[in-house]
Amino acid sequence: MTNLLMVCMGNVCRSPMAQAVTLQMIQQAGLARQVQVGSAGTHAARGKEPPDQRAKTVLSARGYPIGKTRSRQVIEQDFKRYDLILAMDQANLNDLRRLCPNEYAHKLRLFLEFDGDLTIRDVPDPYYGSVQGFEHVLDLCEAGARALIAYLQNTPR
User: Under CATH, domain 2-153 is a member of which superfamily?
Assistant: First the structure.
C-alpha cells in the first residue's frame, strides 16, 4: 500500500482538490487497493472545516466527488505514516521541511514535480480570488494527478 498526503496551507482549497482528483484517477486506473490519499494543511488553524465552496463547485462541475473531507493540520505522525508528502507550492514544502524529522525528509516533494511538461511547479493559492482561479487549480491538479499516477505505475513498490 502506498499512502499519499497532499498538503497546502489551510487544507480547504488546493490539497482537498488534489486529493479528490487523485482519488478518482487512482480508481479509474485500477489502483484503489494499492494507493490511499489524504490531505492536510501546514497552517490549518481553524481545523475541521469543509473545503471552500468554490472548490466544491468546480470539482462537482467536472464530476469529482468531494466526500466528507474536513481540514486538518499536518501532525508529526504523518511523516512516518505517509510514503509521499506532496506540497502544493514551495512555501508549503519549506514549512514541511521545518516540521519533518530528518529521517523522513526524503518523502517530501512538490505535487507538480512529476509532470515534466509543466513549466511551473507551484499550484497557486486561489483562496482570495475568483472561481476562475479554482478552475486553474483544478486544471493543475488534473495534470499533476495524471503524472503522479504514471510515476506510481512505473515505480516498484
Answer: Response regulator (3.40.50.2300)
Is 125 among the catalytic positions?
yes
Percentage of the residues of the chain whose pLDDT score is greater than 90: 90
**Residue 48: burial class (beta carbons within 10 Å; 0-12, 13-18, 19+):** exposed
Q: How far, CA to CA in Å, does 136 sit from each of 2, 30, 85?
A: 28, 27, 22
Is 13 catalytic? The answer is no
| Catalytic-labelled residue, pool 89, 100, 125, 141 | 125
Query: Is the pTM above the cut of 0.90?
Result: yes
Domain borders along the chain are 2-153
Catalytic residue among 8, 13, 100, 141: 8
The Cα 42–Cα 29 span in angstroms is: 29
